Input
Amino acid sequence: MAKRLVEGEDYYLEGGLYVFTGKYLLERGYCCGSRCRHCPYPRAAQNEAVRRRLEGHPIRSPAEFEAALKAVEQ
Output
């Protein structure tokens, strides 16, 4: 069962949109490539996640994120 999100802790609403907090994004364990406002991951990792998302192969798990991050660091 997925964790229930808590407003003010995991996200807040701005202009009718959900904005995830850095705390929540770290707990999730990976960058999704959506250019989240509070993304805590290194810029190179964000860029790789965006590239994969635009190519139709988004990162969907911490394991995929770790593999992508290692590829960028090499």
Summary: Residues 25 and 39 are 7 Å apart (CA to CA). The helical segments are 22-28, 43-54, 62-73.
